[in-house]
Amino acid sequence: MNIHYLHGFASAFDPDSAKLQTLGKLGPVSGQAIDYTLPTGQLIDNALEQGPWDRVELIAGTSMGGWLAAVLGTRLGIPFVAINPSVQPQRTLGKYIGPGVDFQNQPYELTAAAVDSYFNLPTGGQGLILLDEGDEVIDAQATRAALQDHYPVICFPGGNHRFAHMEAALPKIQAFLEGC
Questions:
Q1: Packing angle between helix 64-76 and helix 40-50, nearest 10 degrees?
Q2: Cβ-contact 135, 159 below 8 angstroms
Q3: Which residues form the signal peptide (predicted)?
Q4: Each residue of 17-37: pLDDT tens digit?
Q5: What one-character-per-residue DSSP string does 61-92 give?
Q6: What secondary structure does DSSP assign to 113-134, as a single string?
Q7: 147 three-class SS
Q8: CATH numeric code, 3-178
Q9: Alpha carbon separation from 79 to 28, 67, 74, 177 (Å, rounded)
Q10: Is the CB of residue 43 less than 8 Å from the CB of residue 36?
Q11: Residue 101 burial class via C-beta count within 10 angstroms: exposed 0-12, middle 13-18, buried 19 and up
């Protein structure tokens, strides 16, 4: 199974991360650089141009990458797994408006106009939501409440925003895909 992974805000695709190495047990994992400081339309167009979508069987993403996985999966008809996703990017990103430095020590400038261009996570696709209840950035219970009527939602006790339960989630992802 070919998996395409979408990283979160101020992060980067790192195929050597423990999370992606574990996800890779299901199949090869590709990824791309995503600039969440762009207005939404441009960000989505760039993601569509860069992704190997004709070969992708599962889109996965964490945080803002979970939001984008839902957007692209819904648009392209590809199953997705959204991990600790941002349900309301306008709120999630709002606290980062202005200049900042990402996790690779690269400067960025996030404008209010870019943040205002984001829309809520779509609810029309074929998705699975994975949450760590210990997420310190996005409220897992609020995410569950917002999405449980639209997607299967699996919560893991403890953990963190980066998601500490990928190994435990693998059989859940496999079962989800078998039902697609």
A1: 70
A2: yes
A3: none
A4: 999 999 999 999 999 999 999
A5: EETHHHHHHHHHHHHHT--EEEES--S-HHHH
A6: HHHHT--PPP-SS-EEEEEETT
A7: helix
A8: 3.40.50.1820
A9: 16, 13, 8, 8
A10: yes
A11: exposed
pTM: 0.96
CA distance 12 to 75: 23
Amino acid (one-letter) located at 104: Q
Helices and strands (H and E) in the chain: how many: 7, 8
86 contacts 61 by C-beta, under 8 angstroms: no
Element housing 31 (H / E): strand 29-31
Would you state the pLDDT for residue 24?
98
Residue 118 CB neighbour total at 10 angstroms: 22
> Where on the phi/psi map is residue 14: left (φ > 0), alpha (ψ -120 to 50), or beta?
beta
pLDDT band at 53 (very low <50, low <70, confident <90, very high): very high
Amino acid letter, 160: N
Tokens 């650089």 correspond to 33
What is the signed CA dihedral for 45, 56, 59, 2, rounded to 10 degrees? -150
d(CA 71, CA 34): 14
